[in-house]
Design a protein that fits this description.
With 384 residues, the chain is of the alpha+beta class. It has three domains: 163 residues, no CATH class; 85 residues; 126 residues, Histidine kinase-like ATPase, C-terminal domain (Heat Shock Protein 90), CATH 3.30.565. Helices cover 70% and strands 9% of the residues. A five-stranded mixed beta sheet has the order 1-2-3-5-4, with helices on one face. Helix 6 runs antiparallel to helix 7 and helix 8 packs parallel to helix 9. The longest helix is centred in the middle third of the chain and has 55 residues. The protein starts with a helix and ends with a strand.
Length: 384
Amino acid sequence: MREEVRTAGRASLHLLAGAGVSLLCYLMIGVAMFTVVLTVTVIGAGVLPESVLTLRRLAGLERRRTAAWSGRPVPEDYTPLTGTLTDRVRAAVHDPGTYRDLEWGVAQLVYGMVLLYAALVLWPIALLVDGFWYGLAGRRCVLLPMIGRFADLQAHWSRTLLLPSSKERLTDRVEQLTVTRADAVAAHGAELRRIERDLHDGAQAHLVALSMRLGLARRAYEADPAGSMRLLEQAQAQAESALGELRHVVRGIHPPILTDRGLAGAVRALAASSGLDVSVDTGGIEDGPRAPAAVEAAAYFVVAEALTNSAKHSGSLPAGVELRRKRGRLHISVWDAGHGGADEGRGSGLLGVRRRVAALDGTVAVSSPKGGPTVIEVELPCAW
Protein backbone atom coordinates (compact mmCIF):
# COMPACT_ATOMS: atom_id res chain seq x y z
CA MET A 1 0.00 0.00 0.00
CA ARG A 2 2.93 2.30 0.66
CA GLU A 3 3.85 2.39 -3.04
CA GLU A 4 0.24 3.18 -4.01
CA VAL A 5 0.26 6.11 -1.58
CA ARG A 6 3.50 7.46 -3.03
CA THR A 7 2.15 7.16 -6.58
CA ALA A 8 -1.06 8.90 -5.62
CA GLY A 9 0.99 11.61 -3.92
CA ARG A 10 2.99 12.29 -7.08
CA ALA A 11 -0.24 12.40 -9.08
CA SER A 12 -1.70 14.86 -6.59
CA LEU A 13 1.32 17.14 -6.95
CA HIS A 14 0.85 17.04 -10.71
CA LEU A 15 -2.82 17.96 -10.30
CA LEU A 16 -1.90 20.73 -7.86
CA ALA A 17 0.53 22.19 -10.38
CA GLY A 18 -2.21 21.90 -13.01
CA ALA A 19 -4.52 23.92 -10.79
CA GLY A 20 -1.77 26.54 -10.52
CA VAL A 21 -1.61 26.66 -14.31
CA SER A 22 -5.41 27.05 -14.30
CA LEU A 23 -5.07 30.16 -12.13
CA LEU A 24 -2.53 31.57 -14.54
CA CYS A 25 -4.97 30.82 -17.37
CA TYR A 26 -7.63 32.78 -15.47
CA LEU A 27 -5.28 35.77 -15.34
CA MET A 28 -4.37 35.26 -18.99
CA ILE A 29 -8.00 35.37 -20.06
CA GLY A 30 -8.28 38.77 -18.39
CA VAL A 31 -5.13 39.91 -20.18
CA ALA A 32 -6.57 38.63 -23.47
CA MET A 33 -9.80 40.59 -23.03
CA PHE A 34 -7.84 43.73 -22.16
CA THR A 35 -5.61 43.18 -25.21
CA VAL A 36 -8.63 42.85 -27.52
CA VAL A 37 -10.02 46.17 -26.29
CA LEU A 38 -6.69 47.93 -26.83
CA THR A 39 -6.23 46.37 -30.26
CA VAL A 40 -9.71 47.39 -31.41
CA THR A 41 -8.97 50.97 -30.40
CA VAL A 42 -5.70 50.73 -32.42
CA ILE A 43 -3.71 52.69 -29.81
CA GLY A 44 -2.68 49.49 -28.04
CA ALA A 45 -2.06 47.22 -31.02
CA GLY A 46 1.54 46.73 -29.90
CA VAL A 47 0.29 44.86 -26.84
CA LEU A 48 -1.17 42.03 -28.94
CA PRO A 49 2.08 40.33 -30.01
CA GLU A 50 3.45 40.50 -26.46
CA SER A 51 0.25 39.01 -25.05
CA VAL A 52 0.38 36.19 -27.61
CA LEU A 53 4.02 35.50 -26.67
CA THR A 54 3.02 35.34 -22.99
CA LEU A 55 0.23 32.89 -23.86
CA ARG A 56 2.74 30.77 -25.81
CA ARG A 57 5.06 30.64 -22.79
CA LEU A 58 2.18 29.52 -20.59
CA ALA A 59 1.21 26.83 -23.09
CA GLY A 60 4.87 25.81 -23.29
CA LEU A 61 4.89 25.32 -19.53
CA GLU A 62 1.92 22.97 -19.80
CA ARG A 63 3.59 21.11 -22.68
CA ARG A 64 6.66 20.46 -20.53
CA ARG A 65 4.50 19.37 -17.58
CA THR A 66 2.49 17.02 -19.77
CA ALA A 67 5.61 15.57 -21.39
CA ALA A 68 7.25 15.02 -17.99
CA TRP A 69 4.20 13.13 -16.71
CA SER A 70 3.34 11.08 -19.80
CA GLY A 71 6.84 10.55 -21.15
CA ARG A 72 5.74 11.76 -24.61
CA PRO A 73 6.77 15.18 -25.94
CA VAL A 74 4.09 17.61 -27.03
CA PRO A 75 5.34 19.42 -30.15
CA GLU A 76 4.54 23.05 -30.81
CA ASP A 77 4.00 24.87 -34.09
CA TYR A 78 3.83 28.66 -34.12
CA THR A 79 4.27 31.39 -36.72
CA PRO A 80 7.30 33.52 -35.72
CA LEU A 81 6.34 37.01 -34.56
CA THR A 82 9.01 39.03 -36.35
CA GLY A 83 9.27 42.09 -38.56
CA THR A 84 7.39 45.34 -38.23
CA LEU A 85 4.56 45.88 -35.77
CA THR A 86 2.03 45.33 -38.54
CA ASP A 87 3.69 42.05 -39.52
CA ARG A 88 3.77 40.85 -35.91
CA VAL A 89 0.09 41.72 -35.32
CA ARG A 90 -0.92 40.02 -38.58
CA ALA A 91 1.10 36.90 -37.71
CA ALA A 92 -0.40 36.72 -34.23
CA VAL A 93 -3.96 37.10 -35.52
CA HIS A 94 -3.64 34.57 -38.35
CA ASP A 95 -1.62 31.95 -36.49
CA PRO A 96 -3.82 28.89 -35.72
CA GLY A 97 -1.62 28.28 -32.68
CA THR A 98 -2.98 31.44 -31.04
CA TYR A 99 -6.57 30.17 -31.10
CA ARG A 100 -5.47 26.66 -30.11
CA ASP A 101 -3.74 28.08 -27.03
CA LEU A 102 -6.81 30.17 -26.17
CA GLU A 103 -9.05 27.09 -26.39
CA TRP A 104 -6.67 25.19 -24.16
CA GLY A 105 -6.54 28.05 -21.66
CA VAL A 106 -10.31 28.13 -21.25
CA ALA A 107 -10.52 24.34 -20.96
CA GLN A 108 -7.56 24.17 -18.55
CA LEU A 109 -9.27 26.65 -16.31
CA VAL A 110 -12.12 24.14 -15.91
CA TYR A 111 -10.57 20.69 -15.88
CA GLY A 112 -7.44 21.73 -14.02
CA MET A 113 -9.49 22.84 -10.99
CA VAL A 114 -12.15 20.12 -11.25
CA LEU A 115 -9.65 17.26 -11.30
CA LEU A 116 -7.77 18.67 -8.31
CA TYR A 117 -11.03 19.04 -6.34
CA ALA A 118 -11.97 15.47 -7.26
CA ALA A 119 -8.60 14.22 -6.02
CA LEU A 120 -8.90 16.15 -2.75
CA VAL A 121 -12.34 14.67 -2.14
CA LEU A 122 -11.14 11.18 -3.01
CA TRP A 123 -8.06 11.21 -0.76
CA PRO A 124 -9.75 10.70 2.67
CA ILE A 125 -12.24 8.22 1.20
CA ALA A 126 -9.46 6.25 -0.48
CA LEU A 127 -7.32 6.18 2.69
CA LEU A 128 -10.26 4.96 4.74
CA VAL A 129 -11.58 2.35 2.27
CA ASP A 130 -8.24 1.13 0.94
CA GLY A 131 -6.68 1.13 4.40
CA PHE A 132 -9.50 -0.98 5.77
CA TRP A 133 -9.51 -3.26 2.69
CA TYR A 134 -5.73 -3.72 2.81
CA GLY A 135 -5.57 -4.24 6.57
CA LEU A 136 -8.51 -6.64 6.69
CA ALA A 137 -7.89 -8.79 3.64
CA GLY A 138 -4.40 -7.83 2.53
CA ARG A 139 -5.73 -6.92 -0.91
CA ARG A 140 -4.47 -4.23 -3.26
CA CYS A 141 -5.83 -0.70 -3.16
CA VAL A 142 -8.93 0.07 -5.22
CA LEU A 143 -9.52 3.83 -4.95
CA LEU A 144 -5.97 5.31 -4.67
CA PRO A 145 -5.08 4.39 -8.28
CA MET A 146 -7.96 6.62 -9.43
CA ILE A 147 -5.97 9.70 -8.39
CA GLY A 148 -3.23 8.62 -10.80
CA ARG A 149 -5.90 8.22 -13.49
CA PHE A 150 -7.00 11.82 -12.83
CA ALA A 151 -3.44 12.96 -13.54
CA ASP A 152 -3.34 10.82 -16.69
CA LEU A 153 -6.63 12.33 -17.80
CA GLN A 154 -5.34 15.88 -17.27
CA ALA A 155 -2.20 15.11 -19.30
CA HIS A 156 -4.29 13.52 -22.06
CA TRP A 157 -6.62 16.51 -22.35
CA SER A 158 -3.73 18.98 -22.36
CA ARG A 159 -1.90 17.01 -25.02
CA THR A 160 -5.02 16.75 -27.19
CA LEU A 161 -5.73 20.48 -27.00
CA LEU A 162 -2.15 21.69 -27.45
CA LEU A 163 -1.10 19.27 -30.18
CA PRO A 164 -0.89 20.94 -33.64
CA SER A 165 -3.52 19.84 -36.13
CA SER A 166 -2.80 17.00 -38.54
CA LYS A 167 -2.57 19.53 -41.38
CA GLU A 168 0.05 21.57 -39.51
CA ARG A 169 2.01 18.44 -38.62
CA LEU A 170 1.89 17.32 -42.26
CA THR A 171 3.16 20.73 -43.40
CA ASP A 172 6.02 20.57 -40.89
CA ARG A 173 6.83 17.05 -41.99
CA VAL A 174 6.96 18.10 -45.65
CA GLU A 175 9.29 20.99 -44.76
CA GLN A 176 11.49 18.67 -42.71
CA LEU A 177 11.67 16.12 -45.53
CA THR A 178 12.53 18.90 -47.99
CA VAL A 179 15.48 19.90 -45.82
CA THR A 180 16.63 16.33 -45.26
CA ARG A 181 16.35 15.59 -48.97
CA ALA A 182 18.55 18.59 -49.73
CA ASP A 183 21.04 17.39 -47.10
CA ALA A 184 20.95 13.89 -48.58
CA VAL A 185 21.63 15.26 -52.07
CA ALA A 186 24.50 17.36 -50.72
CA ALA A 187 25.95 14.41 -48.82
CA HIS A 188 25.59 12.17 -51.87
CA GLY A 189 27.32 14.73 -54.07
CA ALA A 190 30.16 15.15 -51.59
CA GLU A 191 30.55 11.37 -51.38
CA LEU A 192 30.68 11.03 -55.17
CA ARG A 193 33.31 13.78 -55.37
CA ARG A 194 35.37 12.07 -52.68
CA ILE A 195 35.21 8.72 -54.49
CA GLU A 196 36.11 10.38 -57.80
CA ARG A 197 39.03 12.22 -56.17
CA ASP A 198 40.30 9.05 -54.49
CA LEU A 199 40.08 7.09 -57.73
CA HIS A 200 41.72 9.83 -59.80
CA ASP A 201 44.51 10.69 -57.38
CA GLY A 202 45.08 7.19 -56.07
CA ALA A 203 44.11 4.08 -57.98
CA GLN A 204 44.10 5.70 -61.43
CA ALA A 205 47.56 7.21 -60.97
CA HIS A 206 48.93 3.85 -59.83
CA LEU A 207 47.34 2.05 -62.79
CA VAL A 208 48.77 4.57 -65.28
CA ALA A 209 52.24 4.12 -63.79
CA LEU A 210 51.73 0.34 -63.87
CA SER A 211 50.84 0.43 -67.58
CA MET A 212 53.92 2.52 -68.35
CA ARG A 213 56.25 0.20 -66.47
CA LEU A 214 54.81 -2.88 -68.18
CA GLY A 215 55.36 -1.20 -71.56
CA LEU A 216 58.97 -0.34 -70.70
CA ALA A 217 59.59 -3.89 -69.41
CA ARG A 218 58.27 -5.38 -72.66
CA ARG A 219 60.49 -3.19 -74.81
CA ALA A 220 63.56 -3.81 -72.63
CA TYR A 221 63.03 -7.55 -72.27
CA GLU A 222 65.33 -8.69 -75.08
CA ALA A 223 68.05 -6.02 -74.71
CA ASP A 224 68.20 -5.86 -70.91
CA PRO A 225 66.54 -8.82 -69.15
CA ALA A 226 67.79 -7.70 -65.71
CA GLY A 227 66.40 -4.19 -66.18
CA SER A 228 63.18 -5.67 -67.46
CA MET A 229 62.89 -7.77 -64.30
CA ARG A 230 63.35 -4.68 -62.12
CA LEU A 231 60.59 -2.93 -64.03
CA LEU A 232 58.31 -5.93 -63.55
CA GLU A 233 59.01 -5.90 -59.80
CA GLN A 234 58.18 -2.19 -59.69
CA ALA A 235 55.03 -2.90 -61.70
CA GLN A 236 54.00 -5.55 -59.19
CA ALA A 237 54.52 -3.09 -56.31
CA GLN A 238 52.50 -0.52 -58.25
CA ALA A 239 49.68 -3.03 -58.73
CA GLU A 240 49.63 -3.76 -55.00
CA SER A 241 49.46 -0.02 -54.27
CA ALA A 242 46.56 0.34 -56.69
CA LEU A 243 44.75 -2.53 -54.96
CA GLY A 244 45.33 -0.81 -51.64
CA GLU A 245 43.83 2.42 -52.97
CA LEU A 246 40.81 0.54 -54.30
CA ARG A 247 40.29 -1.13 -50.93
CA HIS A 248 40.42 2.30 -49.32
CA VAL A 249 37.72 3.57 -51.67
CA VAL A 250 35.56 0.51 -51.02
CA ARG A 251 35.92 0.96 -47.27
CA GLY A 252 34.64 4.52 -47.68
CA ILE A 253 31.51 3.26 -49.46
CA HIS A 254 30.70 0.35 -47.17
CA PRO A 255 33.44 -0.90 -44.84
CA PRO A 256 33.92 -4.67 -45.34
CA ILE A 257 34.42 -5.04 -41.59
CA LEU A 258 30.70 -4.30 -41.16
CA THR A 259 29.88 -7.32 -43.30
CA ASP A 260 32.40 -9.51 -41.52
CA ARG A 261 31.92 -8.50 -37.87
CA GLY A 262 28.70 -6.54 -37.71
CA LEU A 263 28.30 -3.08 -36.18
CA ALA A 264 29.41 -4.04 -32.67
CA GLY A 265 32.61 -5.70 -33.89
CA ALA A 266 33.36 -2.86 -36.30
CA VAL A 267 32.95 -0.26 -33.54
CA ARG A 268 35.30 -2.22 -31.26
CA ALA A 269 37.85 -2.27 -34.08
CA LEU A 270 37.50 1.50 -34.51
CA ALA A 271 38.00 2.01 -30.78
CA ALA A 272 41.09 -0.22 -30.73
CA SER A 273 42.72 1.64 -33.64
CA SER A 274 41.81 5.17 -32.52
CA GLY A 275 44.84 5.71 -30.29
CA LEU A 276 42.52 6.69 -27.43
CA ASP A 277 41.47 4.89 -24.28
CA VAL A 278 37.95 4.11 -25.50
CA SER A 279 35.35 2.17 -23.52
CA VAL A 280 32.76 0.44 -25.71
CA ASP A 281 29.29 -0.58 -24.53
CA THR A 282 27.31 -2.20 -27.33
CA GLY A 283 24.23 -2.86 -25.22
CA GLY A 284 23.96 -6.41 -26.51
CA ILE A 285 22.91 -5.32 -30.01
CA GLU A 286 24.98 -8.16 -31.49
CA ASP A 287 22.64 -10.69 -29.87
CA GLY A 288 19.58 -9.67 -31.88
CA PRO A 289 18.82 -9.12 -35.57
CA ARG A 290 21.15 -6.82 -37.46
CA ALA A 291 20.23 -3.32 -38.52
CA PRO A 292 19.85 -2.52 -42.25
CA ALA A 293 23.12 -2.00 -44.11
CA ALA A 294 22.52 1.73 -44.62
CA VAL A 295 21.92 2.24 -40.88
CA GLU A 296 25.03 0.25 -39.95
CA ALA A 297 27.14 2.23 -42.43
CA ALA A 298 25.83 5.56 -41.09
CA ALA A 299 26.45 4.46 -37.48
CA TYR A 300 29.98 3.33 -38.37
CA PHE A 301 30.66 6.69 -40.05
CA VAL A 302 29.37 8.58 -36.99
CA VAL A 303 31.61 6.66 -34.58
CA ALA A 304 34.63 6.87 -36.90
CA GLU A 305 34.23 10.64 -37.38
CA ALA A 306 33.64 11.30 -33.70
CA LEU A 307 36.66 9.29 -32.57
CA THR A 308 38.83 10.95 -35.23
CA ASN A 309 37.75 14.37 -33.95
CA SER A 310 38.48 13.28 -30.39
CA ALA A 311 41.98 12.15 -31.33
CA LYS A 312 42.68 15.38 -33.26
CA HIS A 313 41.04 18.08 -31.20
CA SER A 314 40.01 16.96 -27.73
CA GLY A 315 43.43 16.74 -26.14
CA SER A 316 42.11 13.84 -24.11
CA LEU A 317 42.74 10.12 -23.89
CA PRO A 318 39.52 8.87 -22.21
CA ALA A 319 36.53 8.46 -24.52
CA GLY A 320 33.51 6.18 -24.82
CA VAL A 321 31.05 4.73 -27.30
CA GLU A 322 27.60 3.42 -26.43
CA LEU A 323 25.13 1.65 -28.72
CA ARG A 324 21.54 0.97 -27.68
CA ARG A 325 18.23 -0.23 -29.11
CA LYS A 326 15.48 2.22 -28.21
CA ARG A 327 11.92 1.69 -29.46
CA GLY A 328 12.71 0.93 -33.07
CA ARG A 329 15.69 3.27 -33.18
CA LEU A 330 19.44 2.82 -32.91
CA HIS A 331 20.91 5.19 -30.34
CA ILE A 332 24.61 6.07 -30.61
CA SER A 333 26.49 8.09 -28.02
CA VAL A 334 30.16 9.06 -28.37
CA TRP A 335 31.89 11.17 -25.72
CA ASP A 336 35.32 12.37 -24.73
CA ALA A 337 36.60 14.21 -21.68
CA GLY A 338 38.57 16.80 -23.66
CA HIS A 339 38.45 20.58 -23.63
CA GLY A 340 35.24 20.80 -25.71
CA GLY A 341 34.39 23.66 -28.03
CA ALA A 342 33.47 21.49 -31.05
CA ASP A 343 32.18 23.72 -33.87
CA GLU A 344 30.38 22.43 -36.98
CA GLY A 345 31.58 25.44 -38.96
CA ARG A 346 35.30 24.79 -38.49
CA GLY A 347 35.69 21.64 -40.55
CA SER A 348 35.22 19.26 -37.63
CA GLY A 349 33.26 16.77 -39.75
CA LEU A 350 30.10 17.29 -37.69
CA LEU A 351 28.28 18.81 -40.67
CA GLY A 352 28.94 15.64 -42.66
CA VAL A 353 27.66 13.56 -39.75
CA ARG A 354 24.49 15.64 -39.55
CA ARG A 355 23.83 15.36 -43.29
CA ARG A 356 24.41 11.63 -43.41
CA VAL A 357 22.11 11.08 -40.43
CA ALA A 358 19.44 13.44 -41.82
CA ALA A 359 19.39 11.43 -45.04
CA LEU A 360 18.07 8.51 -42.99
CA ASP A 361 15.59 10.72 -41.08
CA GLY A 362 17.68 10.52 -37.92
CA THR A 363 18.62 13.14 -35.33
CA VAL A 364 21.93 14.51 -34.05
CA ALA A 365 22.55 16.33 -30.77
CA VAL A 366 25.97 17.79 -29.96
CA SER A 367 26.97 19.09 -26.53
CA SER A 368 30.49 20.53 -26.37
CA PRO A 369 30.83 23.41 -23.90
CA LYS A 370 34.16 25.10 -23.40
CA GLY A 371 36.12 22.96 -20.99
CA GLY A 372 34.32 19.78 -22.10
CA PRO A 373 33.12 17.16 -22.18
CA THR A 374 31.99 16.65 -25.76
CA VAL A 375 29.00 14.36 -26.26
CA ILE A 376 27.53 13.43 -29.65
CA GLU A 377 24.20 11.61 -29.54
CA VAL A 378 22.63 10.19 -32.69
CA GLU A 379 19.39 8.31 -33.23
CA LEU A 380 18.67 6.43 -36.45
CA PRO A 381 15.33 4.80 -37.41
CA CYS A 382 15.85 1.07 -37.43
CA ALA A 383 13.37 -1.76 -37.95
CA TRP A 384 14.95 -4.38 -35.71
